[in-house]
Amino acid sequence: MDSVISLDSDHNIPTKSSAENHEATVLKQSQSLKVTFLASIGAHEFSSSEMWKAALTELVATASLMFTLTTSIVSCLDSHQTDPKLLIPFAVFIIAFLFLLVTVPLSGGHMSPVFTIIAALKGIISLSRASIYILAQCVGSITGFLLLSSVMNHDAAKKYSLGGCTIDGNGSASGVSPGTALIIEFCCTFVVLYVGVTIAFDKRRSKELGLPMVCAVVAGAMALAVFVSITVTGRAGYAGVGLNPARCLGPALLKGGSLWDGHWVFWIGPVLACIIYYGFTKGLPKEGLAWEDGKLDFVNLAAPALCCWRSRRTFDANGKGLSIVTLNH
Fold this sequence. Notes:
- The protein is mainly α and about 325 residues long.
- It has helices spanning about 15-40, 50-75, 85-105, 115-120, 125-150, 155-160, 160-165, 180-200, 205-210, 210-235, 250-255, 265-280, 300-305; strands spanning about 1-5, 310-315, 320-325.
- The relative contact order is 0.15.
């Protein structure tokens, strides 16, 4: 029911006690909404030691992954094999599988803003935890590449842009155009989400397959995406799809220059893929899936904010007018 009451004459002004009671009610409702909002984003987790331990795990795991994965990619590209790019997917699969197997039980095994964003959209983790995870992953990437730059041969680091993070570069470290990179990042990230995350977030199939097999499926999807992207592009400066926006943040901050050109692609492409995949999952058949119970699902959080206007009070400058708009759904 919608009701609107407008009182503008001096004779119809409510009593002082009535106005004070209404103010108290509105204040109470505002406080209640604030508490509800803080609970919905998981603000209480900021005081949880377990969340910070998990975030530290993400930081260390991301730093170790960036160091290990990048050295392996550069080693493959710099080898004397006839087609060294074919070795990279195998290296990605083995390294990703091992890191997932260890990290998933500890923090969820994200190690990339891509998996953190989709987990937050699906309500697997809270927005508060997601924000800390992404910060930890970015710091981990910077740390990993800082260690890497101190031990890697300078010529190799320059030639392969510390693992292939060049967009539209020139010379020996040439990359690909921003448009091409954006399409590759979007499509390959969506494939990984569709193949890997669909199984990982399905409680029934995850239980049937077991942790090692689920990690193998996710790692296999990542290796497939890297294989497709690096075969299509074949540039020294672009080592295939990143699947991790934080991956190229470290090199860009440490080396700067041309590495910032088109850096937005590594963020926009994967984030857009997460949003599209999230919308896509809303239309999947429910009979064949047993999704994780996402109480903090983005739609579940956003819907009340769009339709839960309860009351609004407005006084005129002289204190003589009062209008109350109440919407009850």
